[in-house]
Amino acid sequence: MKITLSGVPEIKAALIKMDADAKRAAEQVVEVTARSIERKVKAGLNRGGRSGRTYQRRGITHQASAAGEYPKTDTGAFAASVFTDARGLMATVGSNLVYSAHLEYGTRNMSARPMWGPIREEETLLFWKRMESTMKGATR
Q: pLDDT tens, 74-86?
């Protein structure tokens, strides 16, 4: 599961006309947004919901998150797998764990526990506000 933020063509075209400092400022907005997504995903996983079913696994009692809740990790492996790779006007935030997609979208045997999508939507709005503010400052 990955979320990729990349500069849209309009921003890239505007940056070509601007100086190197403006481009660096825009790249910082991309990275700040990506790091914010990573922090929010990790925070959600670490607090997660625990109102789902209780079950035994390997002699240990676990309580699952319910449908629609953030998944809650037992071992911390999922939160530890979340990464950000920011390069210029593009950043990727994701997890290489296969079950990340299963949790986000659900399976035929499990309802979704969405987190990436809602955070992406929230951060997209913040990204455009940050970018607008940065570009206004860069053109003064």
A: 788 999 999 999 9
